[in-house]
Amino acid sequence: MSRHFGAIRQLGYVVHDIEAAMDYWSKTLGVGPWFYNPKVPIKNYVYKGEPYEPHNSVALANSGYVQVELIQTRNDVPSMYRDFLQAGRTGLQHVAYWTSDYDADLARLTAQGFKTVMSGEVGEKGRFVYFDTEYHPGTVIELSEVAGPKGRMFDLIRAESETWDGTTDPVRPFPDLSKI
């Protein structure tokens, strides 16, 4: 448990081949089912103060209380993920903490000296921010808002992992955030 953020809720892995990564995680590690979106609809994306339009594929599954996120960049838009890959790395890139009081937590963390590098929004009340905390690989901190549909999707993913038999439909589409 982090004194600053609470429990780590997600481990974010940047990979070159998301399909192969989902296959490995489900068959070898028994983690799944994976909820996959080949092009995540990110709005209001900003990296180092500049707006861009990223094309990222994302897959999400839970292993107990912790969500695993697999990320593959599909274009060359500047991002912390691209920087990670260009530095010759793959694997764990960030840890995420979830909040239902995004504005207050972001203000508190900013007041403590945390600096925003990358931010955006996935669905209503689905904002996220990545801080400049990569002191060694895998230590970027993400603050992720889960007060809206994205949070309900995360609940669904965890619930599905608890009853998954390990073989049936190991890869599933993301639910439509406008309908949950």
TrEMBL record:
Key words of the record: Metal-binding
Transmembrane annotation, as ranges: none
PROSITE patterns: VOC
Superkingdom of origin: Bacteria
Stretches assigned to the VOC domain: 7-146
The keyword Metal-binding appears for this protein: yes
SUPFAM superfamilies on file: Glyoxalase/Bleomycin resistance protein/Dihydroxybiphenyl dioxygenase
Pfam families attached to this UniProt entry: Glyoxalase_4 (PF13669)
Protein's recorded name: VOC family protein
Native species: Acidovorax facilis
